[in-house]
Design brief:
Layout lengths: L13 H7 L1 H6 L3 H16 L6 H13 L1 H7 L10 E7 L3 E12 L2 E11 L2 H8 L18
Antiparallel strand pairs: 1-2, 2-3
Helix pairs in contact: 4-5
Length: 146
């Protein structure tokens, strides 16, 4: 995944990394579906942020650098957060089935925390094994773009 501190602060964004970081594309088993769903969630949330530069700048930049983003953005799909199971292929651990839950913070209604938990016994067991994982790979040049 890489060290988040190595990214410019405005690039510490899941949507940006989904469409610019090759290692994230390899890690998600069904990248097309997951990227489309994440983009539909973003579009749904963007209704409350119309005209905000951070949101419109992200769309403009992703449209410029990612043909996949541009095509999916033109689909105009909208989604709301739900509990889902995502399948990841970790280079050292192997396949992981993780359930995602979106939680809102009452004090900050615009903030959402997504929690990932093991969706099955095999994933729980794989995550519980102690291991020494190699240092994370560096971010791609595009992901680090300032």
């Amino acid at each position: 995944m890489g060290d988040w501190r190595a990214l410019p602060q405005h690039r510490r964004n899941v949507l940006w990394l989904l469409f610019t970081e090759p290692s994230w594309r390899r890690m998600l088993v069904d990248w097309d579906a997951e990227a489309a769903h994440s983009l539909a969630l973003f579009r749904g949330a963007s209704a409350e942020h119309v005209g905000e530069p951070a949101w419109s700048d992200l769309v403009r930049e992703l449209t410029e650098v990612s043909p996949d983003f541009a095509a999916m953005w033109n689909d105009h799909a909208v989604a709301s957060p739900t509990t889902r199971v995502k399948l990841f292929l970790h280079s050292e651990i192997g396949p992981l089935r993780l359930e995602t839950r979106s939680l809102w913070l009452r004090e900050h209604p615009d903030a959402r925390m997504v929690v990932y938990t093991a969706a099955d016994a095999a994933t729980e067991e794989a995550l519980s094994r102690p291991r020494d994982l190699p240092a994370s790979a560096e971010w791609s040049e595009l992901a680090r773009r300032d």
